[in-house]
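Record 1 of the preview.
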Amino acid sequence: MLVRIIINFTHLTSEKLRVAGMNKKKYESKNVVSSYIKMTLQNPEVMILVKHRGSIVNKHILDIGCGSGRTTAILKNLSNGYIGIDYSMTMIESCRERFKDVSFACGDVRKMSEFRDDEFDFIMFSFNGLDSINHKDRLQGLSEIHRVLKQDGLFVFSSHNRNHRYAISRPKIKFSTMPCKQVGNFIKFFKSTRNRLRNKNHQVFNEQYAIINDVAHNYAMLTYYVDKVNQTKQLEDMGFETIEMYDTSGNMMNIDSDDKGSAWIYYVARKK
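->
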């Protein structure tokens, strides 16, 4: 029994260090930061921000995982007090260069002691940012979000869909008639294969969730995946009510909707 406890503790500790540490290191890469600058709002984000505009305009907003400012441009103009945080200092520096006179800070969703209870009307954690930490830290993050969100305030986030048909994959080589491009394809395949061999044994699969070494950034990361049923149950246990769900095309969904074609799901939750 003692051996089993030690093994389980070692596994959990390894999972925590590997998931959080590996992913943060990747998000501090200048190449990743520059790629995020070019990204725009996704269809479900546009629909949610339009539909729930009344909960955003002239309100106090916390933008968690703001990255390079993909969501900053729209939220800062709608709100009466915008704050963007990210646990990658490189991302925050990028935001500060792009947006002057806007409040940004290097922060961690797992411990937001710099914010008061019930401080924000609207909180957004976009582009699957919550999936970059392990299960225990995820629950701690949700608890912190619940704490700093006002009663009946909205929490919007996305999370990788465990039911997606391509959630589990392996590196594949692409072919091109252009020699230079083909060399690039070979290099990418080599990097992906190396990373996959290094990380696949650290995956976690159980009934509630999975931590998968997926295709992102050439298989260099470990990502949290969950289905709609377990995510809504998770939110309920943390004191939230799920009021809407969207697929990546912007279609509204329910628990029974076919979601195999959606890589992630957007959730709109209200603090109960």
